[in-house]
Design the sequence.
């Protein structure tokens, strides 16, 4: 009988060693340890054995059963580990397959850059304001020291909304300066981004609808030095590098003194197409708020001074993304928009 | 405006200042210089030659064969057709390889069999004038072999281009002397004195001048006799050419020269063509016409100021002279006009007749009324230098009620320092102002500043204007940068801006919508297609595109106009825009139209295939996008309902497939708002909008009023405990009459659950065989769950039997479990 046990052991261990799947292991379990298995049969035959052999066979069979089960557990662990190992292989992996109906939306590039601009100014304590796009002549011109018959009115190619000239499509975001002064108590700092309109034939660099960001700071001792400090700080954040600027005389009826602020071209050191080889890019018009404008806004120009600035957002977006045609912005073409 | 470097040198010594540096300094202190270019650069390639001999061409009578010495080892043989070429002349020779204006390159050639190397040039070929009846004969003293640009001093020059926009407010800068005054101040040099006094005239009475309108505040008329017209001298021609003015003849050139020198336009009439009764300055009359110098017939009107000889118009004041009285070759008696005209009148006339001239551009700037007399003196003196024999037969007439605009402004030194942010003492301030000819008196901290008349017409009027002068002359670059300090109130939370930003993020994210910006103006043709012409609209008086006069009331038309072109490239088009529309009927008392702030969405794609599941339809998907948006924004799930019968809908919404989303009004639970509208595109609009044939498909639109949302209550959100007891999932299928909406069935399910229904998800929607005509089958996964106990099969059975009864009441029945 001992021989029989040895045979069973050898046969079970051989099959376990050769097993390649959990099914193989289950078959060994079934054939040897299970109810109908060889060991069970052997154990069932114990009562019919010679009494002196009974303990030996019984003990041997139980021992073998225990060993087989242990070996099954061990092999099971080995097979699982091999399986995971096999899964680690990258040979059947294609990392270039597309997802089902890969769709995503997009924000307009003007929104993207406008948000950047807003968050920089908000971080510097500015409030973001809004104003009407169809605007009273009073706010767009008169209160900004541009009376009727002022040549600046013609320079701006205004869209008029009535024959009396009382209502216009705002030509600039500057009317929000007056609205801000009417609403807020100095000192304050505000910006106003928004769309503006000029009666111009659209081409690659002109649009009748475009976007500006207006800024206004009113305080007790605001100077030209503050104006350049603020704009330089803003540009440093926007371009993420130290950027040289220069102030030069510029004429806007609602500021006095008035300036143009140029930015050292961030794209070249020797001159390039963007800066028309001048190494400077015109960035914004700005200046110290004209006392008549402060008065129109109900602020005493003797007690308070301020500065204002206005720059084109479209230009900034074009610079940021290398866009060469302004008409894309309002064109509503998904082939353009979905890139952002 | 173009400025010549050489011309500036007549007024200020620029020795040692190179043109580039000059351009930069002008830009930083005065006006924007747009570019600096050498004048007539090609002249460096043209050589002074000496014509040794001219022989007739053997085969052509009109051609000559010239032997020309250009200072080289060998003489050149040049075939030349000019009648005036002769031996002994100094001429301008373009040698082989030289490039002339018009990209014309000189090559070796054979003319009628005779070799010719180079070209003897006319003035026109060198772009130095219009004369082309012969070659240009150079002065005797020109040195053979030198480039012509060096041999003739006036040809080496730089052209400085100044941006006109940067000097609109500076009437004093529209001539060379004004720019020179700035440079003198910048470089601390002297502005050269210039004698502008009028020479002595005979004592006879002057030409009568009558001014009948206030638009002319000064009119100087001066008779000049004994004039001989001809060409102007080379120096003048070259200066005029440098600034882009073609030389015409002495008289025209002289008039232009004075304008470009001092910035004061003037006019020369041939006095023989004028009426002896003198000059009348008056407004035009309706129907009056006149032929201007450019030989155009001009229709005049009552807003145009005219110069008349007797009663006959001979010039449009400040714009252009008349053809009938213009000077010509045989003019010998002149009437010089130098006047002060009203800026607005001139601007209006120039713009009305579409004739912006050098003169009108200057008058528009409000010129100094002192200048006419000075300009008259300048012109006469220049003419006298060239033609000493002229005489002035009568006293000048100086008419008009002009006043001297020069004024005195008090300037506080402290104010200068406070606004500029620099420590400039009063002496330094005074020095800067004096450098541009402002008179300054010091009086404690106050400066009494006398503003000269050429700056006082409109540019400088108040203290702050003077501070600008100080700042720019000190140079803004020298002002140190500073940081803002001080107390600023925390920026208030702006719910509207927050709403916009979160809408943009949500829609462009998971919902995969693309943000567009569309024009505020809507084309009439689009409105007609949409049946939305009635508006009313805010309309443009002067649109840039004909037929685009209406300012949008809603953003949807603009988006609809974008669908066709985008569908050509994309099967699935999802667009949104957040922006403003204007309603004139809601104008406020000042006339400002009502403003609506809205989100508009459009979604179109081809019809789903036959096998598509019921929940692939676009309508419920768009609705889900809006639900998600509202929940995300804190308003909760909108309550959707069909518009009430008879409620006016925008014409682009399908009247039968349209829902409005309602919320309870903020602060007033009894009131409600419906800021959301969603609908299919009106079926009649698919074809007009180009969404037919290969672009046919479903199209869903939605409009969300931001104003309406901001008036809606936010219910607030509280978390719900995670269930402690397991739920019981039950599937039910119900056969219902087609007319019963799915929503009613969900209500029935919830009612049958008596508070135990946690969710009811429609997973099948079927019509067809086995269900019967006019009926549909709806199948739901229902989750029953209690907060207080584990549910049993008994609870489920009770739910089913209640549902069976309720379905029966709706005309349907339970199909199976
Ligand atoms: Zn560059």
Sequence:
């Amino acid at each position: 009988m001992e021989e029989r046990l040895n045979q069973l052991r050898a046969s079970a261990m051989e099959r376990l060693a050769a097993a390649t799947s959990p099914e193989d292991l289950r078959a060994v379990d079934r054939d040897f340890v299970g109810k109908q298995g060889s060991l069970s049969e052997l154990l069932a035959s114990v009562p019919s054995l010679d009494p002196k052999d009974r303990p030996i066979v019984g003990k041997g069979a139980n021992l073998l059963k225990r060993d087989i089960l242990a070996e099954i557990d061990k092999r099971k662990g080995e097979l699982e580990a091999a399986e995971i190992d096999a899964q680690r292989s990258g040979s059947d992996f294609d990392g270039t397959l597309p997802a089902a109906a890969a769709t995503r939306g997009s924000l307009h590039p003007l929104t993207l850059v406008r948000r950047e601009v807003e968050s920089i100014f908000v971080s510097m304590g500015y409030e973001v304001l809004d104003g009407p796009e169809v605007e009273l002549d009073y706010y767009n011109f008169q209160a900004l020291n541009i009376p009727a018959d002022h040549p600046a009115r013609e320079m701006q190619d205004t869209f008029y909304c009535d024959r009396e000239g009382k209502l216009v499509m705002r030509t600039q975001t500057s009317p929000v300066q007056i609205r801000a002064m009417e609403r807020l108590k100095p000192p304050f700092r505000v910006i106003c981004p928004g769309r503006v309109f000029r009666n111009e034939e659209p081409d690659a660099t002109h649009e009748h609808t475009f976007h500006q960001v207006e800024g206004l700071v009113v305080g007790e001792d605001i100077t030209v030095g503050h104006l350049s400090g603020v704009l330089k700080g803003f540009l440093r954040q926007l371009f993420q590098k130290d950027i040289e600027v220069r102030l030069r005389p510029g004429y806007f009826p609602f500021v006095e003194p008035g300036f143009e602020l140029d930015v050292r071209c961030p794209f070249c050191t020797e001159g390039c197409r963007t800066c028309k080889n001048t190494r400077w890019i015109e960035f914004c018009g700005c200046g110290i708020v004209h006392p008549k404008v402060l008065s129109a806004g109900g602020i005493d120009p003797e007690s308070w001074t301020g500065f204002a600035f206005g720059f084109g957002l479209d230009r900034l977006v074009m610079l940021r993304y290398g866009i060469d045609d302004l008409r894309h912005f309002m064109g509503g073409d998904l082939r353009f928009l979905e890139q952002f | 405006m173009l400025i010549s470097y050489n011309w500036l040198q007549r007024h200020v010594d620029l020795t040692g200042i190179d043109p580039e540096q000059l351009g930069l300094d002008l830009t930083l202190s005065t006006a924007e210089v747009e570019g600096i270019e050498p004048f007539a650069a090609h002249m460096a390639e043209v050589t002074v030659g000496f014509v040794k001999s001219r022989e007739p061409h053997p085969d052509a009578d009109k051609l000559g064969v010239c032997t020309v010495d250009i200072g080289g080892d060998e003489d050149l043989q040049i075939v030349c057709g000019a009648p005036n070429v002769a031996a002994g002349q100094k001429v301008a020779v373009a040698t082989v390889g030289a490039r002339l204006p018009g990209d014309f390159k000189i090559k070796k050639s054979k003319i009628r069999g005779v070799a010719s190397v180079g070209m003897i040039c006319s003035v026109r070929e060198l772009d130095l004038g219009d004369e082309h009846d012969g070659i240009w004969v150079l002065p005797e003293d020109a040195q053979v072999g030198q480039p012509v640009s060096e041999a003739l001093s006036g040809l080496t020059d730089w052209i400085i281009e100044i941006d006109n926009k940067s000097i609109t407010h500076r009437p004093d800068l529209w001539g060379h002397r004004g720019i020179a005054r700035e440079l003198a101040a910048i470089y601390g040099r002297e502005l050269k004195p210039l004698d502008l006094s009028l020479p002595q005239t005979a004592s006879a009475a002057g030409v009568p001048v009558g001014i009948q309108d206030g638009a002319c505040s000064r009119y100087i008329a001066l008779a000049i006799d004994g004039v001989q017209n001809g060409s102007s001298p080379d120096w003048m021609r070259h200066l005029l050419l440098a600034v882009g003015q073609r030389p015409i003849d002495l008289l025209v050139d002289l008039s232009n020269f004075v304008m470009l020198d001092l910035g004061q336009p003037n006019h020369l009439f041939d006095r023989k063509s004028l009426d002896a009764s003198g000059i009348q300055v008056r407004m035009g009359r309706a129907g009056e016409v006149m032929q201007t110098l450019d030989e155009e017939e001009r229709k005049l009107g009552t807003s145009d100021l005219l110069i008349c000889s007797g009663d006959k118009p001979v010039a449009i004041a400040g714009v252009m002279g008349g053809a009938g009285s213009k000077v010509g070759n045989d003019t010998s008696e002149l009437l010089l006009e130098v006047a002060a005209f009203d800026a607005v009148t001139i601007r209006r006339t120039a713009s009305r007749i579409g004739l912006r001239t050098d003169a009108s551009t200057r008058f528009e700037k409000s010129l100094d009324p002192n200048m006419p007399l000075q300009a008259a003196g300048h012109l006469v003196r220049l003419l006298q230098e060239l033609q000493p024999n002229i005489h002035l037969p009568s006293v000048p007439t100086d008419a008009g009620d002009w006043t001297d605009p020069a004024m005195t402004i008090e300037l506080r030194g402290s104010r200068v320092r406070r606004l500029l942010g620099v420590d400039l003492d009063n002496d330094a301030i005074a020095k800067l102002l004096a450098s541009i000819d402002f008179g300054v008196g010091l009086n404690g901290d106050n400066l009494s500043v006398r503003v000269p008349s050429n700056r006082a017409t409109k540019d400088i009027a108040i203290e702050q204007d003077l501070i600008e002068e100080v700042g720019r002359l000190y140079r803004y670059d020298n002002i140190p940068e500073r940081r803002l300090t001080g107390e600023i109130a925390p920026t208030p939370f702006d719910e509207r801006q927050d709403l916009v930003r979160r809408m943009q993020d949500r829609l462009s994210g998971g919902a995969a919508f693309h943000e567009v910006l569309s024009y505020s103006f809507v084309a009439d043709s689009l409105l007609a297609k949409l049946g939305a012409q009635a508006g009313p609209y805010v309309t443009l008086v002067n649109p840039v595109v004909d037929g685009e006069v209406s300012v949008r009331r809603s953003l949807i038309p603009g988006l609809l106009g974008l669908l066709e072109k985008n569908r050509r490239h994309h099967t699935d088009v999802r667009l949104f825009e957040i922006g403003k529309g204007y309603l004139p009927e809601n104008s406020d008392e000042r006339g400002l139209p009502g403003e609506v702030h809205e989100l508009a969405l459009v979604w179109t794609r081809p019809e789903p295939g036959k096998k598509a599941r019921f929940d692939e339809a676009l309508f419920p998907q768009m609705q889900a996008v809006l639900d998600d948006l509202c929940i995300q924004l804190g308003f909760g799930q909108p309550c959707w309902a069909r518009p009430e019968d008879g409620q006016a809908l925008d014409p682009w919404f399908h009247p039968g497939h349209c829902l409005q989303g309602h919320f309870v009004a903020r602060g007033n639970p009894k009131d409600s708002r419906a800021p959301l509208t969603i609908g299919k595109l009106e079926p009649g609009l698919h074809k007009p909008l180009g969404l037919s044939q290969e672009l046919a498909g479903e199209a869903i639109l939605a409009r969300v009023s931001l104003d309406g949302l901001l008036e809606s209550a936010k219910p607030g959100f509280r978390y719900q405990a995670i269930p402690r007891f397991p739920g019981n999932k039950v599937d039910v299928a119900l056969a219902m009459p087609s007319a019963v909406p799915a929503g009613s069935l969900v209500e029935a399910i919830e009612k049958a659950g008596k508070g135990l229904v946690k969710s009811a998800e429609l997973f099948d929607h079927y019509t067809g065989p086995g269900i019967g005509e006019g009926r549909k089958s709806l199948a739901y996964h229902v989750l029953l769950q209690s907060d207080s106990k584990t549910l049993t099969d008994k609870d489920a059975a009770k739910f089913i039997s209640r549902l069976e009864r309720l379905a029966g009441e709706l005309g349907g029945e339970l199909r199976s479990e």
